[in-house]
Amino acid sequence: MSIDIDTARRVAKLARIKVEEDNLPALAGELSNILTFMEQLNEVDVEGVEPMTSVTPQRLKRREDVVTEGGMQHKILSNAPDAREGFFAVPKVVE
Length: 95
Description:
- The structure is a single chain.
- The protein contains three helices and two strands.
- By secondary structure, the chain is mostly helical.
- The chain starts with a helix and ends in a 7-residue tail after the last strand.
- Heterotrimer of A, B and C subunits.
């Protein structure tokens, strides 16, 4: 697919990127190269290939789901500049 100068100008405007008029042909060429590469990727046969989350197989680290000490509300709220009725108190922001 080939991108013309008018399309490159429109893409730059939509992306809110200031591109000088004399740089538009180069931008159009770069965008065309990117689209050509994407078209090449679409030609690759990926039938039966599992999706990967990483280039090396690895399992996410997980912590054990254990019950911890609760009941530290008073200790936590002692750090708050303003606490009322067991909650953090913040200024009203919506009228």
